Amino acid sequence: MPKIGMPDIRKPQLVKATMAVIERVGLHSASISLISKEAGVSTGIINHYFGGKHGLLEETMRAILRDLSGTVQAQLKHLPKDNHQSRINAIINANVEGFQAENKVAKTWLAFWSYSMHDVQLKRLQRVNEQRLLSHLKIELKALLPVEQANLVAHGIASLIDGIWLRGTLNPDGIDADKAREIINDYLDKQLTFYAQSSL
């Protein structure tokens, strides 16, 4: 976590620089020296406010997660509460369009996923993000399905989002948001149809 007192203008500047360096050279080669040069600050500022590379990576991921959460909330705010499929698509969109789909952000996400497997604090951030996604999906799905099925389908959609996002990130053409919506809605339609038939 950045120390209290750090100028707010420095935080986005350093987060942006961190993502740019990770995009260019990868996480392991993204040294404090390269990041500070990219940001136009001294290495001492990063070490003082973040305690080094790990703290800066944590703040970078927090910034990305805040953007994702804010985007989901903003999109849902403008949709009718009873239009559950549109609201599910808004959740999908927030994960596969705009800022989250930019190369520098996607590469930082990949580095974060890999790093979080061996780091307690980053793993906790990943867990918070996962639970937030599932919570949004379950709210919409519980209006369409019984609780047990809603929970199962929420995990299915979350897995599809992760898989589609990962494949798109590794694809030179990037993430295809239209294809993501098509695949996930096909899965959801089949789950809704299956439940409707099984409850007859």
Can you tell me about this structure?
Keywords: DNA-binding, Repressor, Transcription, Transcription regulation. It is a single chain. Helices cover 76% and strands 0% of the residues. The mean pLDDT is 90. The protein has a domain at 64-198: Tetracycline Repressor, domain 2 (Orthogonal Bundle), CATH 1.10.357. It is elongated. With 200 residues, the chain is mainly alpha-helical. It is built from nine helices and no strands.
CATH 4th-level superfamily of the domain at 64-198: Tetracycline Repressor, domain 2
Biggest sheet details: none
Looking at the structure, the CATH topology of the domain at 64-198 is: Tetracycline Repressor, domain 2
Poorly predicted runs of 5 or more residues: none
Q: End-to-end distance, in Å?
A: 54 Å
In DSSP terms, counting alpha (H) and pi (I) runs of 4 or more, how many helices?
A: 9
Helix/strand-derived category reads: mainly alpha
CATH architecture heading of the domain at 64-198: Orthogonal Bundle
The beta-strand count equals 0
Q: Determine the fraction of residues in helical runs and give it as a percent range.
A: over 70%
CATH hierarchy, class of the domain at 64-198: Mainly Alpha
Q: What series of H and E elements makes up the topology?
A: HHHHHHHHH
Strand content: under 5%
